[in-house]
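Is manganese (II) ion placement plausible here? Inputs below.
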Amino acid sequence: MKVRIFDTTLRDGEQTPGVALSPDQKLSIAKKLDALGVDAIEAGFPIVSEGERIGIKMITEANLKAEICGLARTDKKDIDAAIDCGLKYIHTFIATSDIHLEHKLHLTRDQVLEKAIEAVEYGKSRGLQVEFSAEDATRSDRDFLKKVFGEVAKAGADRIDIPDTVGYSTPQYIAEITKDAIEASKLPISVHCHNDFGLAVANAISGIQAGASCAHVTINGIGERAGNASLEEFVMALQCLQFENKWETGINTKLIYETSRYISNLVGVPVQPNKAIVGENAFGHESGIHTHGILSNPLTYEPISPELVGRHRWFQVGKHAGAHGMNAMLKEYGIVPDENQTKQILAKVKAIGDQGKQVTDVELLSIASEILGERGIKRIVQLTGFSVSTGIGTMPYAFVKLNIDGKEVHATDYGVGPVDASLNAIQKLTGEIAEVRVKDYSLASISGGSNALCEVTIKVEDPYGNMATAKSIGEDIVTTSVQAMIDGINRIMLKKMLKEKKVDN
Ligand code: MN
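Reply from A.M.:
I modeled the complex. Tokens:
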């Protein structure tokens, strides 16, 4: 059975505290969502601002496959503003709970019902597709809610949405009111669930099991307060878990990770590392028992294959590491230690882990080369010249000279600060041979004072999902960052070239 995906990243998601998008940004996100395969995009709330209307208009004119919807209160001016943006589909809402009636709207139940009917009739008279939401449905009187749904259906609504506005429902209760809504309206039902108690996806799935045909979701679960049901969790759960019915969606799941990263970067809301499906750690393994299992068959500790959502599994060594996982990582760099060497490398790795420290790829390789007595690991990229300038009233600027596989190259670039400028210049140079981007950058000070040592940890990634972490310690924040970046790039290029069997190491 097909489940309709109504994405509200650009409306409820944009209502995340601290998030505001420009019209161009809204359009670029809408295009990503369309490519991902969502059925409907809630592009925004037209009445809120001029910029919002411009953004929505750009989206309605972009010829996307998805249906484009806009939010409107049950007021004519809101609905008119939606029409002015070129929208043919509105999501109109009014609260039905006594809490909202008494403390926000100052209306009686009868007045609310009247406004709901008027808005639906007005929307239909203007030729719109109308989805009606009873805001705070899950805290509304159940009989009144049922009555509202029945009446708006009679007034001509095309769809009914059940918003769990403050994430107050249990899976069982939302199933019951979904059945009420179907009985009262005989219309397609959507569920709009919030994550205040971490139940948004569970509630959305329960709504679907009870007969709803659509869920309102957002990428990365962004949205007001604790956010909305997350698209990636909802879609993958429907597709992969055991249900009596077989559910499907129009989502191209292989684009999920890319879309999640894109939107996280653009809206400036990081994804928590342990977030299901799209979190950094969702397909990462450190413990020896787990990596051993994974290496013999990924099914042992992965419910789904990471490739299904456009990702790759990764291993990290640390205090829980085992020989199998560690050697699998070394093998990616072409290093195959014997049993005795493995023991020695592992002992050093665990000693670093016991100090409460993360062991980066670069450190693992330097430990390995120390024990294997090799002349170090092949460095493809070497830093041969470097300077930066920064100050007030001037744009930070960096000059970088590299030797890439024997060839001298140089570049200059700007940035928000000297570190950013330097990394940009490096990326300019290495871009042609290894499209490497900085995935994570962290800076720690090791001791106090202005001459303190700093520790920079950089995680870099290429478009093929190869990842490497590098750590560098020094007195100068900028040169230390540059060194870590170069180390990371070398690791990634080595991994890539070994995969393509271009070098022996
Ligand atoms: Mn909401």
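Short version: The pocket of manganese (II) ion is lined by residues 12, 163, 165, 192, 194, 223-224 (CB under 6 Å).
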